Amino acid sequence: MIERAREVLAKAGFYLSARHNERGISFDIIARKDENLLIISVLTNADTSRPHDAKELKILADALDGSPFLLAKHGGRRPLERGVIYSRRGIPLISLETMEDLFLEGVPPYVFSAPGGFYVSIDSELLRSARKQKQISLRKMAEVAGVSRKAIQKYEDGMGVDLEVAMKMEEYLGEDLIMPLDPLDHSKDLKMEALASLEGFTEVQRFIFEALNSVGYRVIPTCHAPFEAVTSDDRSVLLSGVGNEKGEVLQRKAKIVSNLSSITEKESVFFLQKRYTKINLEGIPLIERDELKELESTRDVLDLLRERKKEARD
């Protein structure tokens, strides 16, 4: 499924993150096209999605100004319907076929699944104006649709409508009421929060997180990403590796983060206990903890990052 999804996105003109074999990462694909940044987790069955992975997808989407969604074959025991948007743990969920229609054919889904069945969003203003223009009472509209007058009033106020009810109203009014849906237009209900507790982190991570906070950064730790934190201020967002890895482990991690930095168009940096002899790895500046102690502002951090990137190019 991951390979098929990558093929669809590539055909649609997206730049894709490189394939990785690292376990425990909450996303499988990050893709960018123009202003759209997608953070995608691919599952065989959507019901196997884990709460902490969903939370991290939301954190990353909010921090990177992207759109998270899940791609799956099944939801429970049933295959996902084509052209329908589902939801798991507050994240849009679609089938591969729905993604193909959206990105390759330009055909958006029109139906969303919710407890009780399939629903659509309708043009509530058009419903109200068409009903009044044709001098149709709420009672008559309710009879046609097979619902209550109160339900019609709620539809005119913007409430989702059962698919069959919406089709009855469209046919009776002779109007196209059903509106397309955009799975990328998600509700960012989990905003970035400043680091509240350092419990559970290593000594090196605690020191670096505190130092970054002290110079003015918001630090959002990650547990299921190839970097340990998203670090941001009003000017920039940094994909921040934090720790004391070395050798092959650090090299592999740097290769992944460097690629993600390119796809997301965000800066990246590794804050380490010791940076050894290098100042740059896979294009990522390395800053050791003793150097970080000497920096007094977020601008100082950015200046050092850009200086090290320039030195590496030279």
Keywords, please?
alpha/beta, six-stranded mixed sheet, eleven-stranded mixed sheet, Trna Endonuclease, Chain: A, domain 1, elongated, 314 residues, 3 domains, 434 Repressor (Amino-terminal Domain)
Indicate the CATH topology of the largest domain.
Trna Endonuclease, Chain: A, domain 1
Q: What is the CATH top level name of the largest domain?
A: Alpha Beta
Helical segment count:
11
Task: Bin the helical content.
Answer: 25-40%
End-to-end distance: 42 Å
Number of domains: 3
The main β sheet shows up as: 11 strands, mixed
Q: Strand-and-helix sequence, N→C?
A: HEEEHEEEEHEEHHHEHEHEEEHEEEHH
- Content-based structural category: alpha/beta
Question: What can you see in these coordinates?
Answer:
The protein is of the alpha/beta class. It folds into three domains: 2-109, Trna Endonuclease, Chain: A, domain 1 (3-Layer(aba) Sandwich); 118-179, lambda repressor-like DNA-binding domains (434 Repressor (Amino-terminal Domain)); 203-313, Trna Endonuclease, Chain: A, domain 1 (3-Layer(aba) Sandwich). Helix content is 39%, strand content 25%. Strands 1, 2, 3, 4, 5, 6, 7, 8, 9, 10 and 11 form an eleven-stranded mixed β-sheet that branches. It has a six-stranded mixed β-sheet with strand order 12-13-14-15-17-16, with helices on both faces. It contains eleven helices and 17 strands. A hairpin with a 2-residue loop joins strand 4 (67-75) and strand 5.
